[in-house]
């Protein structure tokens, strides 16, 4: 007799969603995770909680006109699907955009999920209308950030646990899938020693016993490989230049990619493993939780961006425009870091930090504290803390003081004062009029035409060398590992294909392990707010499909 109808490997968001759907359908579920219970929710807990929605009430209230057709045009132009194996990723993309334009918001809202009223504008593109980027703001911030996304599903699962429908088995490391007559029928692995380390802190891998469990189906919800720099470099595509020698890490150490190889060994087919999503605005966390802990800046459009030699990055490599194209450009410079140069006025209005722990106002659902973002003379508290304590920040009253300290920080002595000054002064001359030929300045004016950006995300246009807006700030930016865009090839029911092109009975994959759907729903690039959404959509599809099959 099987131990459960379905076993889920991974207690992150996609696994919780699948489990909740299965329990609601009356099925029994065992959820395994190598981490302790305090890590329930996985990476999603640490996220900012952004969700991609189309034609939402929040957009309409801000005067944004969006539609399924426009969103699909943006998605396809961004994804750049161009491979034979993109058949299912493309199908998932069409279905997901329909979900984001349809029942996604109401489905979440019925569970108590709420959205912050200002819609963010991420990945603004910079090419033609059919190219990469969001034509309109679509980044809907969860009120409560990542924990606010996890909360409804954790509650549903814990209620099912109390009813006996779901059983958690924490500190269970899966080492193999059991395959019987071509079907996946269970898992085996190691029981790890108990560990009470706080959430996100690395835990021990001491083995105290073995285990084996059987079920009618197994759902792999184990995440990606962003915590394993060796695997990141192994899969790094040549089109992005050589892999960085030095990176900071945007996910806990347990995001190690182990389960990808284990599932592949059982017959699952991984596609698009060279597609990945790493950020170019990473900071060394001055108060780290996991090894190499990095935090991403979510920048507004005004900071001037320079490479390691002090040359301004070309269009459309501006803050918040095109992450992958900027990553490609940086890779070909021969250096693994770049610089923002900005003013106190810019950091006050435009700097936010990704992550639930870096946004206590939004995470704590504190309206009074959140309102201070618009009224305070300083940047948000966590940003000011990085400015004061972060190794990547330099604050000075003049370029003459700033440049030597930039060179001293890197030890490369690459930036020339006169060259940097000339580029900044040239840009400053463009600020005399409400129009310009500098594409970044044009983008600033465009951003401020959108009410949400004008209120909270884009500083009033000004000259960078105007002392009234000082002091000057330089920020060293590092490559930050984050997401795997490829993964196990799945049909729309999240069933995994084998190496022979046939579906493997009893095997499902969701979330990052499945490239957020189909083996790479994003193609080459993300529109942002789409990773959590991919976990929600693929987890829901898998849970409902496995329930029908069981």
TrEMBL record:
Domain of life: Bacteria
NCBIfam families tied to this protein: PRK12834.1
Keywords for this protein: Flavoprotein, Oxidoreductase
Named cofactor requirement(s): FAD
Organism whose genome encodes this protein: Caulobacter mirabilis
InterPro entries the record matches: FAD-dep_OxRdtase_2_FAD-bd, FAD/NAD-bd_sf, KsdD_DH, Succ_DH/fumarate_Rdtase_cat_sf
FAD-dependent oxidoreductase 2 FAD-binding domain segment(s): 5-532
Name under which the protein is recorded: FAD-binding dehydrogenase
GO function terms (MF aspect): oxidoreductase activity, acting on the CH-CH group of donors
Coiled-coil residue windows: none
Top-level taxonomy: Bacteria, Pseudomonadati, Pseudomonadota, Alphaproteobacteria, Caulobacterales
